[in-house]
C-alpha cells in the first residue's frame, strides 16, 4: 500500500470529530485497575445525550418494563452494567459522524453500523472462547475495527462513491476496491484516527492489522485475532454490511495461536444469527 498517498489524503482533513468523555472514561475503566463501575456511571449521568439514549432503551418494548424508568441508576438495575456500557460506547461512536442520506452510489452507513454492532457482539463471544479476559475491550475492538471506512466516506465521498460502485460492479471486497482506487485501505485510515483519538496500542493494533494478522505486534496478537474473526463472523451471519457481502479468508495464525477451529467458528456464527433481530432493534433504538 502507498503510504505517501495516504499521508497526502489525510493532510487534507482539517477538523476531526471528537468522542464524548464518557467513551474515554470507559476506556480508563478497562485499562486501569483502580477505576470503578461507579466512576463510569457518574460520568454517564453527566452526559445528557448518552443518558437519554440509555433511558430510551430501558423504556422500550424490547425490555417491557411495567413502569417508567427515569434515571440511570434504575436503568442500570434493569439493563445491567454491561448493557449500559455497550449503549454508552455505541452512542459515543455513532454520534461522532453525522448521518448521511443513502442512495445507490453511497456507502450505506446504517448497514455499516449494524455490522459494527454485530462484530462487537461476536468479539465478546470470541473473547470468551479464547480466554481473553477484557470483555469490554473486546466489545470496543469489534465496534470500531472498520471505523476508517467512515472517515473515507465522510471526508472523501467522491472517491468512496467510486469504490462502492466498483464493489457492486465487480463483487469484490471493499478493501480491495479501496486499495485499487486509493492505494491504501480503511485499516490505515482507522489506525490514524485511533491515534488522533489517543486509543491505547492494543486497540490501535486491532484496527490497523485486522486484515494483516501476520504483521501484528506479538504483544497484541489476541486483540488483532478478535478483530479479524469478529468481522468475518458478522459477515458470515449476514448482519448489516461492511460495504460488501464477501467473506474474507481466515488467517492461518488464528488456528496456530488459539483453540479456535472451523467448527467452533461456525457455532459462533449460528449463535450470532440468533441475535440478529435484537442487534437490529437495538440499533434502531439508538437512532
Structure, explained:
The chain is an all-alpha fold and 287 residues long. 66% of the residues lie in helices and 0% in strands. The chain starts with a helix and ends with a helix.
Which ranges are low-confidence, i.e. pLDDT below 50, for 5 or more consecutive residues? none
The CATH class of the largest domain, by name, is Mainly Alpha
Global mean pLDDT: 88
Number of strands: 0
Shape call: globular
- How many separate domains make up the residues? 2
Largest sheet composition: none
Q: Which homologous superfamily in CATH is the superfamily of the largest domain?
A: Hypothetical protein af1432
Q: What is the helix/strand order?
A: HHHHHHHHHHHHHHHHH
- Beta fraction: under 5%
How many H/I helices? 17
Q: Summarize the amount of helix as a percent range.
A: 55-70%
Keywords:
287 residues; mainly alpha; Hypothetical protein af1432; 2 domains; 17 helices; 66% helix; globular
Amino acid at each position: 500500500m502507498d503510504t505517501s498517498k495516504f499521508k497526502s489524503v489525510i493532510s487534507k482533513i482539517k477538523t476531526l470529530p471528537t468522542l464524548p468523555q464518557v467513551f474515554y472514561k470507559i476506556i480508563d475503566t478497562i485499562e486501569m485497575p483502580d477505576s470503578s463501575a461507579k466512576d463510569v456511571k457518574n460520568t454517564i449521568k453527566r452526559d445528557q445525550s448518552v443518558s437519554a439514549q440509555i433511558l430510551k432503551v430501558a423504556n422500550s418494548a424490547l425490555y417491557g418494563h411495567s413502569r417508567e424508568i427515569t434515571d440511570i441508576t434504575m436503568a442500570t438495575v434493569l439493563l445491567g452494567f454491561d448493557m449500559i456500557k455497550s449503549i454508552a460506547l455505541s452512542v459515543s461512536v455513532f454520534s461522532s459522524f453525522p448521518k448521511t442520506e443513502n442512495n445507490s452510489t453511497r456507502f450505506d452507513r446504517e448497514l455499516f453500523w449494524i455490522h459494527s454492532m454485530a462484530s462487537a457482539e461476536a468479539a465478546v463471544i470470541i473473547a470468551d472462547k479464547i480466554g481473553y479476559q477484557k470483555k469490554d475491550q473486546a466489545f470496543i475492538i469489534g465496534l470500531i475495527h472498520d471505523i476508517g471506512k467512515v472517515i473515507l466516506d465522510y471526508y472523501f465521498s467522491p472517491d468512496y462513491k467510486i469504490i462502492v460502485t466498483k464493489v457492486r460492479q465487480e463483487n469484490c471486497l471493499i478493501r480491495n476496491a479501496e486499495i485499487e482506487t486509493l492505494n491504501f485501505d480503511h485499516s490505515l485510515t482507522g489506525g490514524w484516527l485511533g491515534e488522533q483519538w489517543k486509543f491505547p496500542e492494543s486497540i490501535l493494533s486491532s484496527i490497523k492489522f485486522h486484515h494483516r494478522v501476520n504483521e501484528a505486534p506479538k504483544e497484541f496478537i489476541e486483540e488483532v485475532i478478535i478483530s479479524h474473526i469478529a468481522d468475518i463472523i458478522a459477515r458470515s451471519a449476514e448482519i448489516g454490511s461492511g460495504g460488501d457481502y464477501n467473506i474474507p479468508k481466515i488467517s492461518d495464525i488464528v488456528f496456530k495461536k488459539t483453540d479456535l477451529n472451523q467448527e467452533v467458528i461456525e457455532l459462533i456464527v449460528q449463535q450470532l444469527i440468533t441475535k440478529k433481530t435484537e442487534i437490529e432493534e437495538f440499533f434502531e433504538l439508538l437512532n
